[in-house]
Amino acid sequence: MFSNFMINAWISGTIIALLVGAVGFFVVMRGAAFAAHAIPNGAFAGAAGANLVGLNPLLGLVSFALFAALGIGASSRWAKSDVATALALVTMLALGAAFLATSNDYEPAINALLFGEILGVSSSEILPVILLAVVCGLGLTLLFRPLLYSSLSLELSRANGLNTTVIEVFFLVVMALASALAVPVVGALLTFSLMIGPPAAARLLSSQPRWSLILSMVLSLLTLWTSIASSYSFNLPIGFFVGTLSALTYLVVRAWVVVSARNARVAIA
Asked: Under CATH, domain 4-192 is a member of which superfamily?
């Protein structure tokens, strides 16, 4: 599990989990779950297109994820946000289907993009992962307050002079970069689960934004670490464990919060 060929998996997995946990915190705060589902599918289409023309899949992932994010941001000006997101999703799925239909990639490569393949991370991909994660982390740090403020109250943010359109586009770009990093490891179909499950559980555990953000990153990291170990031990796709553990994390925390609140009411009565 900790042999040489697994080192890249642990390094990249740790970086991606911390980044996705931080981004997922704002996804849950802003109610952007649909966009968090659509953008990884756009990234998948980019990877398929990059493979088709012989380019690095990471380049395709980043390019199409950004394309999807900017498309959602631009379309939301003249359509409802869910409609704009749906348009971006169906467009990316159509492109992905076309790329796959004309590609000669063998089935395991496609399966890895859809469901994740942590062992497929090479040493040459570690540096780009670190650089992109640092860029996203710096962006979230610099705009933490306005991003949090606009997430809590969009109307008050506009009333106080914040350009919420710019903030929304910025956040979508950060989400796109995080999705592009996560797709090769977790898979296009289940990046969404890691970005929603642990952050949603963290919101239940703390009402303080900073603590909730930290808990989101910790739970995301624990989920991915456990998934890596389980994938190695049981020889199943890591995406299966990420999706299952993300859902279980939320359900367990939700049940604990409900039971604790019920016990507190009984004690008061």
From this structure: ABC transporter involved in vitamin B12 uptake, BtuC (1.10.3470.10)
